[in-house]
Amino acid sequence: MHSDRLLxxxxxxxxxxxxxxxxxxxxxxxxxPEFLALVADTAQRLRTVFGTRNRLTLPVSGTxxxxxxxxxxxxxxxxxxxxxxxNGYFGERLCEVARRVxxxxxxxxxxxxxPLDPEALLDAxxxxxxxxxxxxxxxxxxTGVRNQIAPLAALRDTDTLLLLxxxxxxxxxxxxxDSWGVDACYSATQKCLxxxxxxxxxxVSDRAVRRIxxxxxxxxxxxxxxxxxxxxxxxxxPRYHHTASSTLISSVHAGLGRLLEEGLPAVxxxxxxxxxxxxxxxxxxxxxxxxxxxxxLPQLTAARLPAGVVDAEAxxxxxxxxxxxxGAGLGPLTGTGWRIGLMGHNAQNRxxxxxxSALPSxx
Length: 363
Ligand SMILES: *Cc1c(COP(=O)(O)O)cnc(C)c1O
Description:
By secondary structure, the protein is α/β, with parallel strands linked by helices.
């Protein structure tokens, strides 16, 4: 049994048809010139969606978490300070991974459901100017909150790098790596990019590449060492590091092709429209949207369930009778809320209509 679900959770989303079709292409060797050309063209497409000219831009093997670990492990050395914005589950995850690579962590908190205060992050950095990096989640998938990144461009004039998680934002809302002064940024392919999971797009600024080159100790992870990945995919000659999957990269390449053919502004507009429609309709069904108005993501809506609805039971009916997956709540919404994604290929009116027409029979 292998069902065909409508995936309206926090990811994965249903991939674009072009990305699915590409999965059946013949496998290429991981050092085949055709494969390396495919990687190079994928990287070029990624530069466009990231809004960057960074030379070191790669599809890293692994899911979004691999991108997070590759950036933190490559940029931080044991004992260095990382300042992390925390207003949800994925901010907490950044702290956890930074500690595991040996960094000291200073969290700058905002309540779940509210955005981070960029001034508080900049203040923390000016009180600790030797901090190696400030790390922030752009789209907090646990709450549906959009954090403001542009003011953090001020970090460009300091010795502290800016690391950004765009796992849920890339391909759904504008991301401007170069104009926001972002030094390292990772994403995932199964959310708004509309491809299967298994690849983490990563981009790193030239100044962050120099920091990696000038490390005192080698990166603690061989697999996630961005300098070795650079030497593999972009070295002359390319140097074997691991057996990257041509199947997944082909699929991501095709998904990005579809996205860029539609055009980034049109894709963002499509996400904005369906998100607005869903968030306007949910209260009519007794749901309460969790994120503070004015700071809501269109592609991910966390909402408290109407009183009397049993979370796990309602999600089971939705899955088994309607073939629709939504996500469980996290943090303050555990057991009392849902996370509904309208990402990539699923950012369509028909997905909203299908979900809304199922709700009355659940509630
Ligand atoms: C999903 C997600 C991750 C983790 O990505 P995986 O692909 O599940 O490893 C990290 N950060 C954010 C904001 C996410 O939404």
